[in-house]
């Protein structure tokens, strides 16, 4: 495994194909390991897996946790080595943004809903760094977790609209045995908050079980679970079509939630079948 920290080193090292990339902000956990394992499986022993680690300042708002976001490079490299990563790209801020970018990716109207409603400008920052990483790593496929479902949806749209020659591969959310979605921010939770955070998954699964009774029953079941834990402050709870448009009739749908548990903001989502 090779660690690179400049764009020149990356270009010199990333030559083997097929090539898969997994983009992260570090603080790797089992969810990231699942992405890396899937990447390794898809490219095979002769292919190349590239891991990027970069805490992207463009996607953090002025009151968000950029400065305290966990940076754990040594343990991240151990995870990467264990999962068969060939190349790690860990640039500095000045390396990736030598000048404050005046041109960024405009993510379209979906970016102003759900997460974008709570975090204005977030997805412009996300898509800008993803576009840069796709350009720099030139992969055949890029893997993203379904936990950040709106992000995944917007990346798919960007790649389609801009005719990017790369396959976007979704990987299911990895959870703790009790259902809590793995997240780098879970380490901020104390024991009480960790127990309270489980209500997100309980609400989602209650909604999924009510799918046979239609959208109103789904929302009612989820809200009933959330009301039992008033200390958890909900930013949004939404039921959408798989492309995050409005739900139209029976079929597959996606329920998404964002909430604040203490000082920590968590997101999650689940697939639902509406009858």
UniProtKB/TrEMBL annotation:
Q: Where does (R)-pantoate bind?
A: 59, 151
InterPro entries in the cross-refs: Pantoate_ligase, Pantoate_ligase_C, Rossmann-like_a/b/a_fold
Q: Name one GO biological process term.
A: pantothenate biosynthetic process
Listed EC numbers: 6.3.2.1
Q: What is its main location?
A: cytoplasm
Binding, beta-alanine: 59
| Pathway(s) this gene product operates in, as recorded in its UniProt entry | Cofactor biosynthesis; (R)-pantothenate biosynthesis; (R)-pantothenate from (R)-pantoate and beta-alanine: step 1/1
Additional facts recorded:
The reaction proceeds by a bi uni uni bi ping pong mechanism.
What is the designated name of this protein? Pantothenate synthetase
User: Lineage, please?
Assistant: Bacteria, Bacillati, Actinomycetota, Actinomycetes, Propionibacteriales
- Identify the gene encoding this protein: panC
């Amino acid at each position: 495994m090779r660690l690179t920290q400049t764009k020149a080193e990356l270009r010199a090292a990333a030559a083997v194909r097929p090539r898969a990339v997994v983009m992260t902000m570090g603080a790797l956990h089992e969810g990231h390991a699942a992405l890396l394992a899937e990447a390794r499986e898809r490219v095979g022993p002769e292919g190349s897996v590239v891991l990027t680690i970069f805490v992207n300042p463009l996607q953090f708002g002025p009151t968000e946790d950029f400065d305290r976001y966990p940076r754990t490079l040594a343990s991240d490299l151990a995870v990467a080595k264990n999962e068969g990563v060939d190349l790690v790209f860990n640039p500095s801020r000045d390396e990736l943004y030598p000048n404050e970018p005046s041109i960024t990716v405009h993510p379209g109207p979906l970016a102003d809903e759900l997460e974008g409603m709570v975090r204005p400008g977030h997805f412009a920052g996300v898509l800008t760094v993803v576009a840069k990483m796709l350009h720099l790593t030139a992969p055949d496929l890029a893997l993203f977790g379904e936990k950040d479902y709106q992000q995944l949806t917007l990346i798919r749209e960007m790649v389609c609209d801009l005719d990017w020659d790369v396959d976007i591969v979704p990987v299911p959310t990895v959870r703790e045995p009790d259902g809590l979605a793995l997240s780098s921010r879970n380490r901020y939770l104390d024991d009480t908050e960790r127990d309270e955070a489980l209500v997100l998954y309980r609400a989602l699964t209650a909604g999924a079980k009510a799918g046979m009774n239609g959208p109103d029953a789904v929302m009612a079941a989820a809200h009933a679970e959330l009301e039992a834990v008033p200390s958890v402050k909900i930013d949004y709870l939404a039921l959408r079509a798989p492309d995050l448009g409005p739900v139209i009739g029976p079929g597959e749908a996606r329920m998404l939630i964002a909430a604040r548990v203490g000082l920590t903001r968590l997101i999650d989502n689940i697939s639902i079948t509406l009858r």
